[in-house]
Amino acid sequence: MDCNSNSKINNPPKELFEPGAARFGNFINYYTFNSVSKRLQKIPSNLVLSFQRDTVLCLDIGCNSGELTQGLYSHLTKNLESNVEVYIMGIDLDETLITRCKESNIYEGHVTYQQMDIMSNSSILQLELFLQKYNRTEFDLITCFSTTMWIHLNHGDTGLNSFLQVISKLGKFLLLEPQEWKSYKSALRRMTRLNREAFTLEKLKTRDIVHHLLQVLAQYGKDKHQCFGETSWGRSLFLFQEKI
């Protein structure tokens, strides 16, 4: 067996690690190119105080391998009084990533992970069962970091609107980091370069993403409460809350 043959066995094909190969945004080693700490710097560590509860429930949608979920827990609890408990559930549709989450979880009891697709009815039932354990009907905070584009690409305009309706019902506060249209074009280019099934951008009528989120969430009873600024990779963090 020659050196070239060994190389093919020991080194997996490049496309396995290419971001464009992750059709649902379930990238391997995602946080090596989108820093956890740079996101957390934008989020006030006293955000939990806004919820005015002794037990705070959070849902992180599209948690990937869990680094940001655990970082968020640490960030939100570092200055809390001892009588306030924070519980975060991280969900992702990728079972392999959820396994990695569970293996690296250092906050068991306060941070849990579950494999589910937020776009399925069965997942909504699972989340409602989680809330029932705390005699609650909604999460205090739902976070969705760079996930809306993947829902939009895979489920279309109708799917995006359905997702926004679901999280509006399930969460009192929503912390969203939406991708702009240029990110959609980048995702298409990567899929094309790898000869994978391309996204059909021409079918998507919604292109001014932030404006659309503001409009649709307002219809579902959520107002933009605050913008925490822009990350170094050019995405803004928006906090929405129930209309007063």
TrEMBL record:
Gene3D superfamilies: Vaccinia Virus protein VP39 (3.40.50.150). Keywords: Methyltransferase, S-adenosyl-L-methionine, Transferase. GO terms for cellular component: cytoplasm. CDD domains: AdoMet_MTases. The keyword S-adenosyl-L-methionine applies. GO terms for molecular function: O-methyltransferase activity; RNA methyltransferase activity. This is RNA methyltransferase. One of its GO terms (biological process) is negative regulation of pre-miRNA processing. It holds the Pfam family Bin3. PANTHER family: BICOID-INTERACTING PROTEIN RELATED, RNA 5'-MONOPHOSPHATE METHYLTRANSFERASE. Its EC number is 2.1.1.-. It comes from the Eukaryota. Belongs to the methyltransferase superfamily. Residues 37-244 form the Bin3-type SAM domain.
